[in-house]
Amino acid sequence: MAYNVFIAPREIYYGTGALNAIAGVPGKRILCVTDSGVRSQGLVDKLETILKEKGAETTIYDQVEPDPSRETIGKIAELANEFNPDLIIGLGGGSSIDAGKGAWVLYENPDFMKCSVMEVIPKILGCVLRQKARYAAIPTTSGTGSEVTRAAVITDNSITPPYKGAWNAPQIVPDIAICDPELTISMPPQVTANTGFDALSHAIECFVLINPSDLVDSEALWSARNIFTWLPKAVAEGKNLEARDKMHMAALQAGLAFANGTLGLVHSIAHIMGAEFHIPHGRAIAYALNPVFEFFYKTGRRARLVQLADALSMKGDTDKAKVSTLLSSITKLKQDVGIPTAIKDSDLSEEKYFAGLDAMIKSYENRIALIPPNMKPFFIMPETIGEVRDLFLRAWTGEKTEL
Ligand SMILES: [Fe+2]
After folding, report:
1. What are the C-alpha distances in Å from 385 to residues 175, 272, 360, 366, 388?
2. How far is ligand 1, taken at its centre, from the CA of residue 144, in Å?
3. What is the pLDDT of residue 1?
4. Ligand 1 mean position, distance from CA 50 (Å)
């Protein structure tokens, strides 16, 4: 029988007030990596107060941008080289946590300091960490799951078009994740909805694409159930701590699932649409989910979709009817949280979308070309341009196809 491995942070602190757990985390010189939005919400002050009370020396980098650049993580690493932290904290959404991870890699591997994002990728599995510092991730959004994942996504703006690559290695999984729902209550409704859909896709796309696994499936299913139940409340009542806590845990569990499973075509299509039209990641995910899941049903993942529908108690007399109910439930969840069920109902114009269609198809072809031929059988993906075009068209129209 084949065996597997499940990798997770050594310590996960969770629940209201969990931020205080940082007081007990070893660290005398602490570098905190965050962004100006998190700073303006007062969360950096809150963290600094706890760190000062424990007698730690701290320094803050609060200029992380969305989709953090190689340049930014280089600056943070230089700051780390001067300050010599023994603990690095990533505080914020996925961008701040990833920027902190990237800077941690450079700080511990000075040989990488002059490398581009692409040059580090083939070396990353051999990178050394924890010789100088440990890493703690404190998410302030409930979506990316970066607090428990093994990747840091970094954008290289020195090349045209900018290259967005992932430094992916098991040792990059943070040592400590602190998931305090109080840090998420100021997330605006739209951000809550979008990031919630990101988490939902991590849970259900991972479930559909992997072979059955008791460990990964349980994380994915519990996460998906909580998102269907609690996302509308977290969006409608931002200060509802129970809803925030359920969503924060759901994002964490979805992160554990896909970090130990996989993601696929939903994310590929969403990344392409997001890059072409600057659609927020979770929103693009919401647009891609239904067309791609219909595609999965027809192309080899039917059994897992039926298992997912069963596990989520989707009603239906036949397997097809249950999966159909699952797809309708995803659509209803979008409606309940204010996400358009089709891109045509968003503020993106038809003219602009169709002008970008060929570029998106080209971008898809470029991505596929990067997959080594021996790996292709492991990917569920369209083989013809017509199928790819159809996915982008249905994301636009929101039309369902017969399963
Ligand atoms: Fe995602």
Report:
1. 43, 15, 11, 12, 5
2. 6
3. 67
4. 31
pLDDT of residue 390: 96
pLDDT digits (tens, 9 = 90+) for 83-99: 999 999 999 999 999 99
Domain span(s) for CATH 3.40.50.1970 in the chain: 11-184
User: What pLDDT, on the 0 to 100 scale, is given for residue 28?
Assistant: 97
Rg of the chain on CA atoms, in Å: 21
**Does the pLDDT at position 378 exceed 90?**
no
Q: What is the distance in A from the centroid of ligand 1 to the CA of 154? A: 14
CATH superfamily, domain 189-397, is Dehydroquinate synthase-like - alpha domain (1.20.1090.10)
| Cα 71 to ligand 1 centroid, rounded to whole Å | 23
Q: How far is the CA of 262 from the centre of ligand 1 (A)?
A: 11
Write down the CATH number for the domain with range 11-184. Answer: 3.40.50.1970
- Comparing 233-247, 288-302, 370-384, the range with the smallest average pLDDT is 370-384
Strand ranges (E), 4-162: 11-14, 29-33, 57-61, 87-92, 134-139, 151-156
